[in-house]
Amino acid sequence: MRIKKLLASVVGACALAFATPGAQAGPLAVNAGWIGDITFGLGSPSLGSDWTFDLPYGGTFSIVDGFLPDDAYTVTDTATLAVVATTAVSLLPYAWTAPSDPLADPYWDDPDFGRMQIVLAPGSYSFSIAAVADILFPAGFYVRVDAPVVPAPAALLLFGAGLAGLVAARRLNRA
User: Fold this and answer.
1) How many Å apart are CA 122 and CA 84, to the nearest integer?
2) CB–CB of 31/100 below 8 Å?
């Protein structure tokens, strides 16, 4: 019975790696929802590392274990080689409104799976993700980057023109 469970776990991790779009190094789309990735050994970078993305207005980077409970991952800034954070088993609230994923969201809600969310300032980022604790390899997880939706410059211009019109109308009424 235990061998069947291990075999099912390996097959599941491989399916996660190869069936989920985005499990290759490169840019991570902001506000696009969860992207699956996989790692094959302790300390070795995931298949999708390095994850690169730009946040002109800041945002959040989220990661959740998506395979077996009790796996842990580190997120490393590839520019400085500093460990940014390590996943932990704790419940975190949702901080995104972008598309969700019926496969990944349940892992986020399950208290047995490690998760982490990093609040980031505006800038360009490149993260590498590696497993630091795992029951069985390969190990799968999901990542996402979310940023606030900022109004288009034309909308701000329209708002400014309306505000200027109100000021002008008030001055005309005083005269």
Assistant:
1) 16
2) no
